[in-house]
Each structure stands twice: as C-alpha cells, then as structure tokens.
Amino acid sequence: MTGVRRTRALVATSTLSLALLLGACSSDSDTPAATSTTTAAAASTSAAPSAASTCPSAAPAAGGTPEWTLSGDTGSIAVIGSTDTTAPAVTVTPPFGVTETQVKTLSVGDGPVVADDATVSVCYAGVNGRDGSTFDSSYERGAPIEFPLDGVVAGFQKAIAGQTVGSTVAVATNAADGYPNGQPRAGIEAGDSLIFAIKILAVS
User: Fold this and answer.
1) Strand 89-97 and strand 74-80: pairing?
2) Partners of 113 in the β-ladder
3) Which of 90, 103, 109, 132 sits a CA distance of 20 to 30 A from 97?
4) Which of 63 and 197 is assigned the larger pLDDT?
5) In whole angstroms, what is the distance from residue 101 CA to residue 153 CA?
6) Which segments within the chain are labelled E, that is strand?
7) Residue 154: left if φ>0, alpha if ψ -120 to 50, beta else—which one?
8) Is the pLDDT score of 191 beyond 90?
9) Across-strand partners of 97?
C-alpha cells in the first residue's frame, strides 16, 4: 500500500513539474494554460522511475570546482553539473539576472543529437536567480521526466536542442525565455531570471 501511495505521489509531482515547464510556452497569464494539464498528465506516466533511469539525489563533494561561472547583469552563478551518483549544485549570488539567455555545455554525451521537436527524458534542477531558491528538481524526487521539447519554456528548449544524449547542460534564462509574467505556484515573479542544470538521458 505504501508503494502505491508513493507511486501516486511521484506521478502527481511529475505532473506538476511538467505543467510548470509547459505552462509558459504560449501563455501571457500568470498561470499555465489549461491545456497543459492534460498534456502533463499523459506524459507523466513515463516519468516514474525505473531501475535503469533515476536522478541521483546525493550532493556533490564539498569544495568542488564549478564547471561554469557566470556574472550576470546583476549577481552571479556557479554551477557544478550532475554525475552518475550526484545531483548538480547551483550557487547563486543574488539577485542574479541576465538580459540574454546563455547556455553552457558542462559535459558532452556520446548519444544522438537532440532535434528541436524531439521528446526527451531528463533530470533537471530549476533555480530562481532572484533569491537562489530551488523551485523544482527531479533530482530531489529521484525520477526523470519526459516531455516534447517543442512544448516547453524557450530557455529550456534552447539548452537542450542541438545537444547530444548523455550531456550535462546549464542555462541561465532571461525572463522572456522563462516566465515573463511569473509563475506563482513556483514562487517565480515577473522578471525573474532562472537557472536550469540538466542531464539529457534519452531522446525519441
């Protein structure tokens, strides 16, 4: 019974996460488009963890060297990408903000190239540049999520399209490529820059 409840909780959390990512695609309102919920519910069935595809939750070793440091128009960030056994680390000197979205490939995978309209399975952490808080993380849940790349926020798509499967990537998005009007459910305000640390697991 406990296992059933945990599976339902994971699916519900994955649905919310996918709705957050999909929500800003074409909406000018402060809440995700109503059609996103149906898409999220359908896609979340493939987001539950399996023995071969999980997202590690262990923190990287203390004092690790950042693979990417970036000074924004305000503030700065330092990112350590995930490994097979550790989650990424995103350190923010707030408030961090950029006017141009910037992508950094942290490590290059040896899989196929991700097309703009591919469906991908990823592990990711999303951090708000305004205050350094993590607003969403599949690493914390231990489960990857799958979604169509042409249906997510622009900054997320820019980070993944053209990369190869197996790569770890970080992106600092301006507000226009994230949630221009904010996303209250995730504590994101209008104008916030976001940072995503991503591991690309698979593509279809």
Assistant:
1) antiparallel
2) 164
3) 109
4) 197
5) 12
6) 68-71, 74-80, 89-97, 102-107, 119-128, 134-137, 145-148, 168-173, 194-203
7) alpha
8) yes
9) 74
Q: How far is residue 7's CA from residue 21's CA, in Å, rounded to a whole number?
A: 21
Question: CB under 8 Å to 55, separation ≥6 — which residues?
Answer: 49, 82, 87, 123, 138, 139, 141, 142, 143, 144, 199
Contacts of residue 197, defined as CB under 8 A and 6 or more positions apart, other chains included, come to: 79, 81, 82, 88, 89, 90, 124, 125, 127, 168, 169, 170
Residue pLDDT, tens place only, 19-41: 566 554 333 333 333 222 222 22
Q: What is the rounded distance in angstroms from the CA atom of residue 56 to the CA atom of residue 141?
A: 9
**Secondary structure of residue 38 in the 3-state scheme:** helix
Two structure tokens written together for 130: 């305004």
Structural tokens at position 133: 């808080």
DSSP secondary structure letters along 94-144: EEEE-SS-EEEEEE--SSPBPPTT-EEEEEEEEEETTT--EEEEHHHHT--
- The residue among 42, 33, 52, 34 whose CA lies nearest residue 14 is 42
Measured CA to CA, the distance from residue 23 to residue 5 in angstroms comes to 26
169, two tokens: 């990537």
Q: What is the pLDDT of residues 104-163, one digit of tens each?
A: 999 999 999 999 999 999 999 999 999 999 999 999 999 999 999 999 999 999 999 999
The whole-angstrom separation of Cα 10 and Cα 47 is 8
